[in-house]
Amino acid sequence: MIVARLLCWLVFVHITGIYLFSRGFLLSRLALPNKSQEEQAQWNRFATHKRAVLLVIDALRFDFVSAHPPDPPSPNHHNILTLPRELTAAHPHHSFIFNAYADPPTTTLQRIKGLTTGSLPTIVDIGESFSGSVIHEDSLLHQLDISGRKVAFVGDNTWLALFPSFLDHNLSYPFDSFDVEDLHTVDSGVISHLPPIIQQSSEPWTLAIGHGLGVDHVGHRVGPDHPAMKAKLEQMNAFLGELVRIIDEDTLLVLLGDHGMDHTGNHGGDSILETSSAVWIYSKGAPLSSSFVTSPPEILPKTTFPGESVPHRFIQQIDLVPTISLLLGLPIPFNNLGNIIPELFDRGDSSVGEALEMNVHQVKRYLDVYRASESGSELDSVWSTLVDAWLEAGDAPPKSRVSALFAFNRLALSMCRSLWAQFSLTLMGAGLVVILTSIVASYAIYIILGSSGEDRAQRLEKNLLSAFRVGVLGSIVGGLAHLLVRKYLDGVHADHLILFGGALASSVTLVLTCKPRPTFEMLKSTPILLTLHTLCFASNSFTIWEDHIVPFLCLSSLAPSVLIGFTAPTSRLRNRILGFSTLFAICVRLMMLSTVCREEQYPYCVVTFYASSTSSAPPALALVLAPVMAVSIPRIIRRVLAISKSDNGIAGVFLPWTITAALLAGTTFWIVEWIHSMEWVGDAGNVWLRNGRTMVARATVVLMIFGGVVLWNVTPVCLDIQRSEWPAKMVASIAPETNEAPPDVRVKPSYSENPDSDAQVTVTVLGFANAFGSPYIILWSIFLSVVWLCMQLTGQVVLGLFTVALLAYLEVVDSVRDVRGLNEALSKGFVSAVGTPSVALTYKREVQFSEIIPLALLATHAFYGTGHQPTIPSLQWKTAFVLVSSVWFPYSQITVILNTLGPYFLAGTAAPLLVVWNLPPLPPSSPALPVNHQKNMVLSVLRSCLGLATYFNILLLGSAVFAGGLRRHLMVWKVFAPRYMFTILGMGALDMGIMVGIWGVWRVRGSIGRLLRGADGVGAAVSGN
């Protein structure tokens, strides 16, 4: 019961603190439900076309269509899609190319929202990327529906999820959007269905949308600098030629990328490569711009793409919304913040000024309504500036009026972008208070769990029960308090105060009842490395380079153990500590060789996780090392277990056969995926490869999760009990005192069943010294194999090094404890005849916080080494298709989560090993030992897990404090907010791993007890609790 209560409280306070702070820090934009409903006549005068074809080539970066690509140009994605620039050069008043800024997060769903509503997304919208909700705010499609016009659609089915009632079902052909390994199906569907729709007359349409995914999928799969990208762009260029040929003079053709892609083909962030998308607008009939009119240069900004030497016309991607609306004679959507593209309204008269007037009035109307809404206070700090700009635009003389109107729209856009960072300081403060008090309460429990009193379990259980009762009372008080203060606390709801009251009351109760007493020794032992790690989040530079800081901290955390090794009283212990410490350091250094660079680290960082910075393929070395590592890891685990003769029982079957097969299957999956991506075997062969590796992945998961865990649950022991019959005199000479036998072998003499024989039966238990740790490491390796499957090849190599480092560290911790126990025994005279510490000292297993720090740092180091950064673009989306060929809830989400957060989960499940590694069951008839040895072991495991959770909870507090304190910092959404969000995710994975680990310890304890039950003293003690 004590375990369940503690875990429930821990998860509750973690979730509550995170929820409250996040609700105050990551606010969503208010979407007004209003619709533009002006008279149609006033919009018709701007119309130039009756229909429009909107072709979205997903992830079409600007330089893919630029007439002046970066130098040197890539042979795979530059100067290939050339039709737009050729027609622009031939018909400059009919054809226009723009570099369009796509607001982050640069994911397809959020960009479709922006492209249709003209509004701005928020960073928390990234959570909808796998499953979007219906768009209810005014949009281009809403206006088409209001006017009775039809929308045809072919391609990415995300549109159908966002606009299910506005896409004509007779003219819609949606295709699955998330199978990044399918480079052709969606594009082939667009190519085959869109031209017939354009040419037919039986079903009149006004807007035909085609959304191809091939370019984006090539980028995700192999990167932009790959021959597959060249082939795909050539296909798109030919298709564009087909569209230009078949459209009539009343049809406007718009080509655009919803976002760009970075060097590796990924997107989601706000780097210039991800936000630079291509836009091409072409009119086959009437010119869009007059050759006799020149707009003021200040309303025609230009920018230079990285690597290029010629500046190009620069627009906001949401500028397409008012532009297309007016060109089709539609009202501008109500929530639009975009500006018309001036060139397309230069017609030799006052069209630019009049169109801007309509545009500006629409934006001002939106701001007025927003100001009057429940979120209107967000505009208080900027409202006077907006009003002044509005009055200035209204009073501007005719010659500068166009520039003043344009300036007002751009000012409104920049001000509304700042609304992303409107915070609820009340909720943020409440969240920080809950996190802080939970840390103090956790530390108080940590102290109790480490105390030597026999009543610590009863005390803690009583304190937890009191905390639960007071927590319920606190929730009730919080709910009642909301009735009194709701008028004074904007944005604070009843559920916020209920959760806050319950979490705060329970944490404070634990602090008051546990009564931790700070001492000088406690203050002196403050973990310096944890403090330094937390303070990294105070600086954007340190946060950016955390992947280089963590290895240094990880190696430094082992310094105290190394110093103890130099002073060890025996050469055996000295060699073990220094040898395994060296192995740990080598693994940490080798893990550093795997890097994925975030945008801010260039040019001081080199990508090694992939074959190059522009590829998502594995490096050649990983193709060789991953299979070697898959075969070696089970053998290394078994070799370490052999030190304590614990490589028997289930270890003798699981490690060489089951675990090896599972790891090899995971490596085979990614090798086959690489072969598939190289397009060596043709379409038919690719289908076989795709289906084959999917079956391998599914079989591996079923084998390990269902078969492996079930089999382990039945017989989770690694002991080998041998019986031999010896003459009594020989037995007496070999084992005169059973407690003095080596710790890895327990010898128990007994009488022979033959009453006429003077011989005795000797029972030898091999693996006794690591009876708890050896079966638990088998359980841990089962989960390792599942995470291994979700890691790409370089990540598997790093995960193997992580495993070796963990084993080395466990041996270091065990040897250091032996040194301390031996020194204490020598100082007190508690040493046996053979020079080993007494039983009471041998079984002392209280984990020190300094022993937890290396494990926490190793987990963070593995997160970076497996190809991740706390940024959205570093998410390895291709892992969503390990078990399925298209996005399928929840399998796709689970595999992405395991790929990203697997190291944290494995660290959580490894926390109990700090206690149970090389821990034998209670020896027979040992009065020097506490009676409740098994219960004390469980309490020690709880202490270890709680210490690890506290480490990451302190990191969470630091990231939240500095993200909140620096909320107006230029890099808040680029650096601080993503780091906070990834800390949350890491905490969740760690908590899940801890719960699995505690279940594993409980199961091992029961099995060991049942196995040894019946032996004199041993069985009763082991199974007693």
Descriptive overview:
It holds the Pfam family Phosphodiest. Pathway: Glycolipid biosynthesis; glycosylphosphatidylinositol-anchor biosynthesis. InterPro entries: Alkaline_phosphatase_core_sf, Phosphodiest/P_Trfase, PIG-O_N, PIGO/GPI13. With 1025 residues, the chain is of the alpha/beta class. The protein has two domains: 46-348, 3-Layer(aba) Sandwich (Alkaline Phosphatase, subunit A), CATH 3.40.720.10; 519-721 and 783-923 and 930-1014, no CATH class. The protein has 36 helices and twelve strands. It has a nine-stranded mixed beta sheet, with helices on both faces. Strands 10-12-11 form a three-stranded antiparallel beta sheet. α25 packs antiparallel against α26 and α26 (682-714) packs antiparallel against α28 (773-790). The chain is globular, with a radius of gyration of 33 Å. Residues 730-753, 838-843, 924-931 and 1014-1025 have low confidence and may be disordered.
Q: Summarize this, please?
A:
With 1025 residues, the chain is of the alpha/beta class. It has 36 helices and 12 strands. Belongs to the PIGG/PIGN/PIGO family. PIGO subfamily.
- The best one-word shape is globular
Order of neighbouring strands in the sheet with most strands: 4-3-5-1-6-7-2-9-8
Counting structural domains, the number is 2
- Alpha-beta content class: alpha/beta
